[in-house]
Amino acid sequence: MDQKQIQFVFPCRDEPLDRLAATIIPIARLVPNAGFTVVDDYSRETNPADILGYAGVPAEIVDRTTVLPPRGKPGAGAAMFRGLQCVVEGDETRVAVTCEADGSVEPGELVRMVELASAFDVVFASRWISHSATSKFGTNRKLLSNVASLIHRSVRMPGALPSDWTLFYRAYSRPAVEQILTDGATAPAGFSFQAWAAHRVLESGLNWKEVPVQYHYRIHGESLALRHLSQTSEHLWLASREFKDRILGRKL
């Protein structure tokens, strides 16, 4: 696949620029012609590209980086949706890789996901299948992720289902992104967006694959999730809505 057809999408919230630079630069070195889409508030500046340059991002990477302001409700999901919208506005993009600006997954593993995206509509990164591993991932965070994933799997049973519904690291084909955006009116603005997107993928019958990753919790910065204990209720609400619509036989 032509690297110019790949976009890495970073939904952010007041992300420190040095952290973003430390995440983007290693990826850009492995995929030297890929593009980057960043959604964050500092994009309201007159020239956000200059700001990235000040943070140490080389000019050749800044030139292929789009920085956007968030739209509508605040939240990780809203920022992700905005980034995916930007991706499909360009005719060239064929694969969107959604990431976090924290370095938790090695760039080489993201490249492996891109390679698989030529054969699958969605590649899910997982912390919970064979050959995966986590480090510095506290009990509370593990419990939250596993409980949320269990809730969403229970809605879709029986059948083969992804194990990790909350991790932001995924590779989407262009058709998958377009499918997700079709149901945009119901997209959650918060952290449950990833689970919502997984429901859309499974509902539409797109083909998918799950791959193990070595997840090194928050190489850069702190988790916003820990400041939002409402995440569990977000996932419960979303799962109950999905369950209702499956029972009633209609889409959201």
Note down, in words, how this protein is organized.
The protein has 252 residues and is of the alpha/beta class. The strands form two sheets. Strands 3-2-1-4-7-5-8 form a seven-stranded mixed sheet, sandwiched between helices. It has a two-stranded parallel sheet with strand order 6-9. It is globular, with a radius of gyration of 17 Å. The protein has nine helices and nine strands. β1 (6-11), α1 and β2 (35-39) form a beta-alpha-beta unit. The relative contact order is 0.16. The protein has helices at residues 17-30, 48-54, 59-62, 76-89, 107-116, 139-156, 174-182, 193-204, 231-248; strands spanning 6-11, 35-39, 65-68, 95-98, 122-126, 133-135, 170-173, 208-212, 214-216. 42% of the residues lie in helices and 15% in strands.
Instruction: Tell me about the largest β-sheet.
Output: 7 strands, mixed
Helix content: 40-55%
Number of strands: 9
Please indicate the percent range of residues in DSSP E strands (runs of 2 or more): 15-25%
What is the residue-mean pLDDT, rounded to a whole number? 83
Poorly predicted runs of 5 or more residues: 221-229
SSE run: EHEHHEHEHEEHEHHEEH
Supply Rg: 17 Å
Termini, distance in Å? 34 Å
Count of runs of 4 or more consecutive helical residues: 9
In what order do the strands lie side by side in the largest sheet? 3-2-1-4-7-5-8
Q: Which word captures the global form?
A: globular
Supply the helix-strand structural class: alpha/beta
